[in-house]
Design brief:
The protein is of the alpha/beta class and 324 residues long. It folds into 2 domains: 4-151, Ribonuclease H-like superfamily/Ribonuclease H (Nucleotidyltransferase, domain 5), CATH 3.30.420; 164-317, Ribonuclease H-like superfamily/Ribonuclease H (Nucleotidyltransferase, domain 5), CATH 3.30.420. It is 38% helix and 25% strand. The chain has helices at 44-58, 72-87, 101-113, 128-145, 214-228, 242-257, 271-281, 298-317; strands spanning 4-13, 18-28, 31-42, 64-69, 115-120, 176-184, 190-198, 201-209, 235-239, 286-290. The strands form 2 sheets. It has a 5-stranded mixed β-sheet with strand order 3-2-1-4-5. Strands 8-7-6-9-10 form a 5-stranded mixed β-sheet, sandwiched between helices. A hairpin with a 5-residue loop joins strand 6 and strand 7. Helix 5 packs parallel to helix 7.
Length: 324
C-alpha cells in the first residue's frame, strides 16, 4: 500500500425510495477533498454504498484506508456478510438474491484494491466530518432535484459526480452540450474541466491529478461528463483534443480488435482511460466535435481556464499524492 487515507461517507434519500444523494470527504497528507452526487430514484442504503464506492474509486493507487460511516448496513455487509454471499453466488443464506448486488460487486472490487478498516460513527452526534458528509449527501439530493447547490472552494471542482436531471430536447438533437479541456504542468500535476449546457443552463466542473499527462487530462473531461449525465441523454462533446476525438471515433475499433494493442503491436497508452471511456459510450448516444484551442470559442476558453486552475491546485497539493 502506497499511502494512508481517512474517509468519511454518508448517504441520504428523500422518500426511500426517491431522490437520493451521497457525500464523502477524503483526508490525506494534510489535504482534504470533498465529493458529492446523487440519483433521482434510489434508496438510502444504495446511497450509503455509493459514497463508499466513489471514495475508494477516487484513490488513484492502492491505499491503507480508515473509512468512517454511520451505516451499519455497509459495515456489516463488507465485514460479515460479503464473504458468504460470494460463496453462495450472491445469494443469502435463505437462497434469496442479495439486494443491491450490483453495488456490492462494485464495492467488493474496490475492497480488493485497498486495505480498508471500517469504523462506525453515530449519525448526527456532532462528529465534524460525519456532519459534513451528511451535508454533502443532501447537496447530492438537491443536485438531482435541480435545486441550487452550494459550491465552496473545496467542493465546487468535485460536483461532477451527480446525475443531472435534464429535460429532453427534440428527437435527434443533443440534450446536453459538453465542452471539455485538459491541462498539465512540468511538475506532472494536471487538471481537467468541463462546461455543461442544457437549454441555456450552464454548470462547470473540474478536478486535478498528480503524476499525469495532458492527454490523460483531456480524456478525463469527457469521462466525467458521461459519468455525470444520465445514460438516456444525447450528449455532444466538444474538445480541442484531436487525440481524444480521433481515438474514440477512429483508432479505438482496431485497438479493441487487437486486444488493446497498436498497429505495431505495442500496448495502447492510457488503456485504463480508453476502456473507461469506451464503456461509457457503449449503448448511449454520444457525438463528438472538435474546436481549435485558444481560438476565441467561449466555452472552450472557459474550460481551458478551469483546467488550468485545477492543475495549479493539484500542483499546490503535492506531495499529498494519494489523492488523484
Amino acid at each position: 500500500m502506497t499511502g494512508h487515507v481517512t474517509i468519511y461517507t454518508d448517504g441520504a434519500c428523500k422518500g426511500n425510495p426517491g431522490p437520493g444523494g451521497w457525500g464523502l470527504i477524503l483526508l490525506a497528507g494534510g489535504a482534504e477533498k470533498e465529493l458529492f452526487g446523487g440519483d433521482p430514484d434510489t434508496t438510502n442504503n444504495r446511497m450509503e454504498m455509493m459514497a463508499a464506492i466513489k471514495a475508494l474509486e477516487t484513490l488513484s493507487r492502492p491505499c491503507s484506508v480508515e473509512l468512517y460511516t454511520d451505516s451499519e448496513y455497509v459495515i456489516k455487509g463488507c465485514t460479515e456478510w460479503l464473504a458468504g454471499w460470494k460463496k453462495r453466488n450472491w445469494r443469502k443464506s435463505d437462497k434469496s438474491p442479495v439486494v443491491n448486488v450490483d453495488l456490492w460487486k462494485l464495492l467488493d472490487e474496490q475492497l480488493g484494491r485497498h486495505d480498508v478498516k471500517f469504523h462506525w460513527v453515530r449519525g448526527h452526534s456532532g462528529d465534524k466530518y460525519n456532519e459534513r458528509a451528511d451535508q454533502l449527501a443532501n447537496q447530492g439530493v438537491d443536485l438531482v432535484r435541480g435545486q441550487a447547490v452550494e459550491r465552496s472552494a473545496v467542493s465546487k471542482p468535485q460536483a461532477a459526480q451527480g446525475t443531472l436531471n435534464l429535460a429532453p430536447r427534440a428527437s435527434g438533437q443533443p440534450t446536453v452540450e459538453a465542452y471539455t479541456d485538459g491541462s498539465s504542468r512540468a511538475s506532472g500535476a494536471g487538471g481537467w474541466a468541463l462546461v455543461l449546457v442544457n437549454q441555456g443552463v450552464e454548470s462547470e466542473q473540474s478536478g486535478g491529478a498528480h503524476d499525469t499527462t495532458n492527454n490523460r487530462m483531456e480524456m478525463m473531461g469527457p469521462i466525467i461528463a458521461l459519468e455525470t449525465i444520465a445514460a438516456h441523454e444525447h450528449v455532444r462533446i466538444t474538445t480541442d483534443s484531436e487525440y481524444v476525438k480521433k481515438g474514440i471515433e477512429e483508432w479505438i475499433h482496431n485497438w479493441k480488435k487487437r486486444g488493446w494493442r497498436t498497429a505495431d503491436n505495442k500496448p495502447v497508452k492510457n488503456v485504463d482511460l480508453w476502456q473507461r471511456l469506451d464503456k461509457l459510450c457503449t449503448g448511449r448516444e454520444v457525438s463528438w466535435a472538435w474546436v481549435r484551442g485558444h481560438s476565441g470559442h467561449h466555452y472552450n476558453e472557459r474550460a481551458d481556464k478551469l483546467a488550468g486552475e485545477a492543475s495549479l491546485k493539484a500542483q499546490a497539493s503535492i506531495p499529498a499524492a494519494t489523492l488523484s
